[in-house]
Write a structure and sequence with these properties.
The protein is α+β, with helices and mostly antiparallel strands. It has one domain. 14% of the residues lie in helices and 33% in strands. An 8-stranded antiparallel beta sheet has the order 1-2-4-3-5-6-7-8, with helices on both faces. Strand 1 (9-15) and strand 2 (18-25) form a beta hairpin. The longest helix is centred in the first third of the chain and has 15 residues, at 32-46. It is globular. It starts with 8 loop residues before the first strand and ends with a helix. The relative contact order is 0.18.
């Protein structure tokens, strides 16, 4: 919640039991902290068995779905897997740069930071900046267990996207 008192609402949606994205209502996150909080909820959803089969890229879209519920501001849509025949192609977001891009990893593709966190899911959000104009890249990383416990949350401003595998992949999709 920001100083205006308006909340960021996030509702996951699926098709055939697979996570397809999230409906965002109220308002968009304003800060890196709020994007990290949104990511934490998305990662917690990803811990549900079978909801996400492989590491998947999600793009933020400010357009509204058909017949939106009151207060809907946009969508975070599954764009495709990171690897494989139907992987999201490099440069996918080059022409229309989204305000944020996420990557979610199911438990089967997450190496937990602590050995006792077996079954944790993880994710990353990249908030692309415009370094030539003095606007730095920002990012957050979250790991959570199936019981909802967030076991790791890190956010950074002024990151070099190449310095982390997740942000490097996301930056490649924006190039």
């Amino acid at each position: 919640m920001n100083s205006s008192g308006r909340y960021v609402g996030i509702s996951p949606f699926q098709a055939a039991g697979i996570l397809q994205g999230f409906v965002i209502s109220g308002r968009w996150p304003d800060t890196t902290k709020e994007w990290a909080q949104l990511l934490a909820l998305a990662v917690r959803v990803t811990t549900l068995p079978g909801i996400l089969r492989t590491s998947t890229v999600f793009g933020v879209r400010e357009e509204l779905p058909e017949e939106p519920a009151p207060g809907t501001v946009g969508l975070v849509i599954a764009e495709g897997p990171v690897l494989g025949e139907s992987a999201v192609a490099p440069g996918r977001f080059g022409k229309h740069r989204p305000p944020a891009i996420l990557m979610l990893h199911p438990p089967s593709e997450t190496a937990p930071t602590l050995p006792e966190c077996e079954g944790a899911a993880s994710g990353c959000v990249l908030l692309p900046g415009l370094p030539d104009l003095g606007l730095e890249h920002r990012a957050a990383w979250v790991e959570a267990e199936a019981d909802g416990t967030v076991t790791s949350m890190v956010s950074r401003v002024g990151i070099d996207p190449i310095g982390d595998p997740d942000t490097a992949v996301l930056a490649m999709l924006l190039a």
